[in-house]
Amino acid sequence: MRNYALSSAPADALQLPAVRDLRRILPRRNDYQRRDVERIAGVVIHHTSGAHLDWNAEAIARYHVEVLGWPGIGYHFIVHWSGVVDWCNDLESVAYHADGEIRINGVGLNNWQHVGICLTGDFVQGRTPTLWQLLSARLLIDRLSWTLGRRLPVLGHSELSPMLCPGDQWAEWGKELR
Ligand SMILES: [Zn+2]
Question: N or C: which end of the chain has fewer CB within 10 A?
């Protein structure tokens, strides 16, 4: 069993991961509805699923916009295998990533209440996020909590909906993000 303890991170992990601001660059159809950030109750973690690849944000955005017909990419942040973070939507954007049965203005309540962070990859069949992804996601969540002035709870998508996102070992590696 792999050891995820953050204390085992290599020393160069002290370099803070880069955040690329792609909010005005990624393809989109129109604007998501907006919320007050006070409404944000927590963070939902996703994986990209499908092929186990370090998908780039533009490919994900094209899929969400052109195939699914969403206003823009569904996640607020994408965390890559290298630990690099892509910032994809304003925190105020009610992006489509968690849905849920209860809907407000046609959009799932879970979207109104959460920030969506997607780790690239398909974490099934023994695959897990890279140490860099975990470190980076942890730092990102800490920064979000600091920015919003309260500790944000962290949920896996599967804790809100009956689905296999972010993979079948979330209960194990998710501990590093809570
Ligand atoms: Zn998901």
Answer: N
